[in-house]
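hi support,

uploading two proteins for the ticket. first:
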Amino acid sequence: MPNDNFDQPLCIGPHRLMPGQRQTIDLPVGHLVTHQVLDLTVHVRRGEKPGPRLLVTAAIHGDEINGTEAIRRLLNRRMRHLAGDLILIPVVNLPAFVNRSRYLPDRRDLNRLFPGSKNGSFGARLADLLTKEIANQCTHAIDLHTGAVNRPNLPQIRYSDDVPGAKELAEVFCAPVTIASTVREGSFRDVFGRQGMVQLMYEGGEAGILEPAPVQLAINGVLSVMRHLQMLPQAKRNETRGKTVFCEQTTWQRAPRGGLFLPSVNLGAFVEEGMILGKIGDPLGRQKTPIFATHSGVVIGRLRNGVIDEGDGIFHIGLTRRVGAIAKSIQAAEADLDHGLDHPVFDEDVES
């Protein structure tokens, strides 16, 4: 989707930004119980040449912090040759972020309140502000997430298969695994889906834990998308990245009984139907129950709780039989991460 209005002012709240301008904008959302004004902080970078308008967001769930760190690092890149517009929001759900919580103070999930309402609850007003002032003016979006507490996710991209161009952009992002998934009504993805706009949702790591690998993969993916959209020049050094593996469906492997959870496979492992994924120990010491895989595929998420109940989702499996492709994708991601802290992504002031 082209940005046909690039030469016009980009209006966000009372601010008008022309091409070439950069500004950090604090949009008032409302007042907290302490009378403190709550703002949505938006970083806007307008290039001097026409191009798409990309929105990158994080912490819609306040305890999912890997995306916030990824955006913080992106903000430290100069991007002098930027074409189009880049809008970065490191913390969407600030009240939840401050409380180290997934949810808003009223225990609602912000990612079920879109497109929001200016006369609704606090969360609905935040969703309305983000939708009308920011999202509706963008051509593309990437929303950064993690797994929930005690449910880490293998870095992965989710996209809407019915949106033209979404699969291509998901492949360019190049997470180890890519999944075509349905859009939940009321989610941020739903805002873009209704307009036929391309939006990717990245999942990597676990809530509440800052992890270098998912952070770096998120940054690499965003920069790859920007280069593909011709918002940035191609990388000067030769970057050899692997290919993502597409999983058309996912399923949860559930606990056959309650007890002590003793897994024997980790994230990224390829499992065959019938193989043993671990055991469930009887806490009273009487027996162990093996966990047999009910499907073949790659482990894209798992439970870390030591004590489980019958029926708990313990392994999230992306369905695929492409064993070799999975191994190459995981190895390529690991090789990319092996650069360590001397990799440009960890440089606080690098050129793009």
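and the second one:
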Amino acid sequence: GLRQKQAELRKQGKYMGIGLSSYVEICSAGPSHAVGGGGWEAGTVRIERTGKVSVLTGVSPHGQGQETSFAQIVADEFGIEPDDVVTIHGDTGRVPSGIGTFGSRGTSVGGTAVYLAAQDLKEKMKKIAAHLLEATPDKIEFGIGKLLVKGNSGRSINFKEVVTVAYNAVKLPRGMEPGLEATRFFEPSNFTFPFGTHVCVVEIDEETGEPRITKYVAVDDCGNVINPLLVEGQIHGGLVQGIGQALHEEVVYDENGQLLTGSLMDYAIPRAHDFPEFELDRTVTPSPVNPLGLKGVGEAGTIGSTPAVVNAVVDALAPFGITHIDMPVRSEKIWRILKGRKAS
């Protein structure tokens, strides 16, 4: 195992370290009374006359991929293709209500508001379909591109045909208003608590002090997963940010208060070749505070990675009596330790 390899390398005068970190994060900021107001989120789902769907959300994704995941949520509920759903955000002229994207709340709170709005439209469409198919709404279910009577697939009506009836309004049930649009506000009853464990292995270049990550394993639990690729992308990005903080990034001022790291010529950020291929896995423990069972994953990588990396470097330097190093753990710090102390 890793400890056996570490012992063998130490006999050769080489230094490998193993770092471990486990975390529990508080996410999905809400309910409102616990965050001083504004713990809710709003979502609108509108089925257009064409059968295409517009989702208007108060969250504002900037790399999280909710344009895709929200489309998946709605498409899955209606039995249509995600390509038939457009997610609109960040435009206060079109989306007047919303709180925003922070604290890994975008999908767990904002996505739930969208999901609930879709449920309202599903119930309305079931009533329309039941009226047209001479059934009761509780006997109607959504299939792929159609609504049908449970247990009798021969009695069905196309999704777009129901949409046409909703807007044409001639064949609607008595007393039902035309159109297909619903807005819901979702207030979570509690925070969510994603968790995970990360393991990092580093090897130290004894000549330069450069720490090189040779293996990184992250196992995270963000509840139910809508889009695995987006989740892994969020974790990859978080790992790079956290590792950058641990090993490279630092704001430096001179004795006169002049910023010395004011551009990317001087401020070190990690690059692709600084990393091994990340090994990711997950457990799935659905959250009970929203109907989708989501927790949030936007910050998981940044939380688990930083202590795992620093712990790995400290472990590598244990023969030198090192039990703590301030971040960033750059090669110069490690080189001074290697040259200034004698390994036991």
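thanks. also noticed: The longest helix spans residues 106-133.
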